[in-house]
Amino acid sequence: MRTLAAALALLVLSTAGCKRTADGKTEVTLPTVDIDVGTKKDTVSTPGLTTKPETVIVNKPVITPPPPQ
User: Fold this and answer.
1) Nearest CA to 16 among 4, 8, 6?
2) Cβ(26)–Cβ(20) under 8 Å?
3) What percent of the chain clears pLDDT 70, i.e. is strictly above it?
4) pLDDT of 12 higher than 70
């Protein structure tokens, strides 16, 4: 009994979008689906980068010439 009820429900649901025209042809109405095809621009916020001058003091070796002879 459940199988018959399920089959009957499936038959009713499958023919719900169909109707007969005046000349006897079957016309099927399908649901419309809107699909958005394209690209979308997204904004990405990157962190800011700044530089500042840095002074570094380096002790360099000094070579003195030998005394004259």
Assistant:
1) 8
2) yes
3) 86
4) no
The residues near 19 (Cβ < 8 Å, ≥ 6 apart) are 26, 27, 29
CA–CA gap between residue 47 and residue 8 (Å, rounded):
63
pLDDT by residue (tens digit) across 17-48? Answer: 677 778 888 777 777 777 777 887 878 888 88
Chain centroid to Cα 42, Å, comes to 10
- 58 contacts: CB under 8 Å, gap ≥ 6: none
Residue 22 is encoded by which pair of tokens? 């005046």
Residue 10: phi and psi, rounded to 5, are -65, -40
Q: In this structure, what token pair is assigned to residue 12? A: 């009713």
